[in-house]
Amino acid sequence: MTHWIPVCTVEDIPALGARRVAREHGLDVAVFKAADQRLFALLDRCPHKGGPLSQGIVFGHSVACPLHNWNIALDSGQAAAPDQGQTPRFALKVEHGLVYLDAHELDTLATEAKRPLAGPAARLDCSGPARRACPGAASGAC
Q: How does pLDDT run across 57-68, given as a tens digit for each residue?
């Protein structure tokens, strides 16, 4: 039997937008509201480069990733052709204006997924013997 957890109200989700739901382990889940008021839940990570789908533009039953404009189907998490890839989707239900997600999925689905590192956070560890071989060591980038 599915154990449902209330995460927000339908009114908390902006039209043609998303609300993020934090999880104890793993990346957030994005709950989207389409123009026809249908709701969808996906991992808040584009399958391409890991962009935050919750910050994308919702159109029809798709969301455009804010990083590289990949179109992701809200009902399946599948990238539109010619792009390939899929982000996990989460079971969702609405009762009396409350939005519920499956507790088991929140605890187990895609908990290993990480947001890619960029900028200063992506620097290599160039300490110890590896420092001499690091191309950024001479410039102080490491």
A: 999 999 999 999
Q: Are strands 4-9 and 98-102 parallel, antiparallel or unpaired?
A: antiparallel
Q: What is the pTM of this model?
A: 0.81
Of residues 88, 95, 28, 84, the one with CA closest to residue 55: 28
Q: Supply 116's token pair.
A: 């890619």
| Architecture category of domain 4-133 in CATH | 3-layer Sandwich (2.102)
Separation of alpha carbons 72 and 64, rounded Å = 6
Alpha helices of the chain — where are they, by DSSP H? 103-108
Torsion angle of C-alpha atoms 127, 129, 135, 139, degrees rounded to 10: 50
Domain ranges in the chain are 4-133
Q: Distance between CA 60 and CA 103 in Å, rounded?
A: 28
Query: What integer pLDDT is reported at residue 116 of this predicted model?
Result: 78
Residues 6+ apart with CB under 8 A from 65: 46, 48, 51, 53, 56, 71, 72
Return the structure tokens found at 100.
């519920």
CA dist., res. 65 & res. 78, Å (int) = 12
